[in-house]
Write a structure and sequence with these properties.
alpha/beta; 6 helices; 5 strands
């Protein structure tokens, strides 16, 4: 499904066997949103104009014009052919089993190319643990995407940047060994440390309100929701495309 509705779709699917009235109301609300945004699509940006392509006006952002945006200017390796990702986890929000929700979004060409909303299979004892499990899931997804991009002659020359808003998870992922408080986590998740050590991935800090994967983990306020939708749907002009005429 579309990345902007991936969380409600996953959430509502948990009650498909025995839905209540509140779930029917939520589905009707979701259908109204889809009907009102049926023309909302992905916009991918070139570095330079192409004479053989139609001249299409850039999309209008859904968020207010003065809304804050994620500034990636300090990362010169992010170009039109460089993939980067966002990962987030909402700790223990499943009231039935207290499992956390993982949200992942990977970007290329100014819009999302892959995304995921997933209820984690185990219960996490802390928010950092939930975020680390999400980061491990994002790492596996990044390696899969890197292999596909290599097959279509878009090899990734640098480590894939993955933006993460949890400091504890970033320290665990970028460390060379498990921390004392995380050794109970399944050893399979620590393959992430090897991928980072081999310069395939690197986890970078991002403010919580600028983490685009947040929309895949929870119901966000309207302005925050539209801010993330603008980014993942390509409605915000990326830095490398600033030279294109409006």
């Amino acid at each position: 499904c579309r990345p902007d509705i991936s969380f409600p779709v996953v959430k509502l699917s948990q009650f498909s066997n025995n839905p209540a009235k509140i779930h029917y109301k939520a589905v009707k609300y979701l259908f109204r949103y889809v009907a009102g945004t049926r023309k909302l699509g992905m916009t991918y940006w070139r570095t330079t104009p192409a004479d053989d392509l139609p001249d299409i006006a850039p999309p209008t952002p859904l968020a207010p014009p003065d809304d804050v945006r994620h500034d990636t200017s300090e990362f010169p390796t992010l170009t039109s052919s460089t993939m980067h990702g966002y990962v987030d986890a909402d700790w223990g929000t499943d009231i039935r089993h207290r499992r956390s929700v993982t949200g992942i979004t990977f970007m290329l060409g100014g819009a999302a190319i892959a995304w995921k909303t997933r209820v984690q299979p185990t219960v996490s004892l802390s928010s950092s643990e939930a975020e680390f499990l999400a980061a491990s899931d994002a790492g596996r997804m990044a390696l899969w995407l890197r292999s596909i991009l290599k097959e279509i002659d878009v090899p990734q020359q640098h480590a894939t940047l993955i933006f993460e808003d949890n400091r504890g998870a970033r320290l665990m992922a970028n460390a060379s060994q498990p921390t004392k408080g995380s050794r109970h986590i399944d050893i399979r998740e620590f393959a992430l440390l090897d991928w980072v050590d081999r310069d395939l991935l690197v986890f970078v800090e991002v403010h919580t309100n600028l983490n685009a994967a947040d929309v895949c983990t929870k119901q966000a306020p309207a302005i925050l929701f539209f801010r993330h939708v603008d980014l993942i749907m390509g409605r915000v002009r990326p830095l490398y495309a600033r030279s294109l005429q409006e």
